């Protein structure tokens, strides 16, 4: 019994020195993942559009973090940034495909092809480009793992008006199942499906206490989740604590 206690958690020192690419690392869930990894002395390639917040991350963590202003929907920019990080640290060990947007409110009756393209480019096509760049700079570094950010909206349909977002997140689950097969057994690939997490992506929807309370009332654990709680699950899935788990989508949703 005692030999297995703690075996399911992140092994101490596992992340020290490992190179982890986190997209959308400047705020919310991505920042929480980056901060936890940096606290464990991982080297983090932090990519985001928000230059100011990336500078703050750099100021706090110095040489452990390599920040890059990268639009993940721009494949050329992704390839360039991946080459730069690889030149600096010799390649990547782990990847968190986290950057995402909800997009403008849109129904199918009045759908705007340009907006649909934008949401799919940032939330879905980027995950192909970034994963591909990661794999080109992973070779020969031994075991690795990838975590993608899906959403429970991918299976529930999310809120009316967010159909492009829900579709992109459902596709992230499919991508995860398929890539896990493509990369097995060398690299494990899993996804997280958060419910409603208190971050800036939700700021317009849950702007007042009334709407937060209404949402909390339909969540079995009776509150919104935190970025830290999602980050804990991400680190566990990345680590050997989850050694026999691949192709899985893990809900972090308070039971929703
Ligand atoms: N917060 C939630 O309730 C929730 C629920 C389910 C899934 N998710 C997913 O979790 C992920 C993180 O969301 P969050 O809640 O932390 O949101 P957030 O808005 O706080 O963070 C998203 C980050 O992605 C960055 N980003 C956006 N577009 C980008 C681009 N083209 N290139 C590079 N970076 C870009 C933003 O600048 C921002 O720093 C997203 O994929 C989101 O869909 C969030």
The name of the CATH architecture is: 3-Layer(aba) Sandwich
Q: What order do the SSEs take from the amino end to the carboxyl end, as H and E?
A: EHEHEHEHEHHEHHE
Shape: globular
Strand percent estimate? 5-15%
Describe the fold and architecture:
The model is unreliable at 1-7 (pLDDT under 50). This protein has helices at residues 28-39, 51-61, 75-89, 113-136, 153-156, 163-183, 209-216, 227-238; strands at residues 19-23, 43-48, 65-69, 94-97, 144-149, 187-194, 249-252. It has one domain (13-251): NAD(P)-binding Rossmann-like Domain (Rossmann fold, 3-Layer(aba) Sandwich), CATH 3.40.50. The chain has a seven-stranded parallel β-sheet with strand order 3-2-1-4-5-6-7, sandwiched between helices. The chain has 256 residues and is of the alpha/beta class. It is globular. The protein starts with 18 loop residues before the first strand and ends with a strand. Helix 4 links the parallel strand 4 (94-97) and strand 5 (144-149). The chain contains eight helices and seven strands, in the order E-H-E-H-E-H-E-H-E-H-H-E-H-H-E. Residues 23-24, 26-30, 47-50, 70-73, 98-101, 122, 149, 151, 194, 196-197, 199-202 line the site of nicotinamide-adenine-dinucleotide. The site of nicotinamide-adenine-dinucleotide has 29 residues, from helix 1 and strand 2.
